[in-house]
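User: Sequence in, structure out. Go.
Assistant: Echoing your sequence, followed by the structure tokens.
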Amino acid sequence: MMNSENSSRAEAKLVMRVAGLTKSYLLGLSKITIFEDLSLEIKRGEMIAVVGPSGAGKSTLLHLLGGLDRPDRGSVIMDEFDICKLSDVDLARFRNKKIGFVFQFHHLLPEFTALENTMMPLLIGGEQTSSSQRRATDVLKSVGLESRIHHRPGELSGGEAARVALARALITKPDILLADEPTGNLDSRTGEEIHHLLKSMHTEHGLTSIVVTHNERLAGICSRILHLEDGHLHS
């Protein structure tokens, strides 16, 4: 039987606890339930792949875990409080500080350089331009883009744009990295390069990472694979 001290230690290893998560959408007059009563525990330092058929709700789940969307019911506990109960303003602040996002299509702002795109989360958080530039330059160097920091997205290859998106996700030193098909639009060789970069950044930055992917090779480098199908998560 686990004593209270051991129980506290086990609990301290959890970075996220999801309970009773339910999400549905209205499609015309029909209610489509994506998943219902979904639960999940994520330990600090894990790199988790979420796989499953198209339309299973993988991206929806990632958005709920990152506070980009709200569930119909259920809780997402981080730092001992339920982010689903935060106000929109407090949730935005929490996301900016604690969570880094990487999306398949990157969502880089086309009129800004790689450096400026990477700086953006810091500027939104109120950091001064000079220190934001220094930090952005350092993180762009760490992902291999030292020579491309003043190029705009239209001047970058797909792999380079993916590296900028990762740098932007890492700039705030988040606890959690959420990646939605981060190599889905890349060729196989470039995708492999980004896979290794994601893994090395996960380790180097001490992240907890959750990656939605159809790519078996990317899933294979993760420490745990979860399958989302018919509204259920299973290993």
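User: And one key feature?
Assistant: Confidence is low (pLDDT under 50) at residues 4-12.
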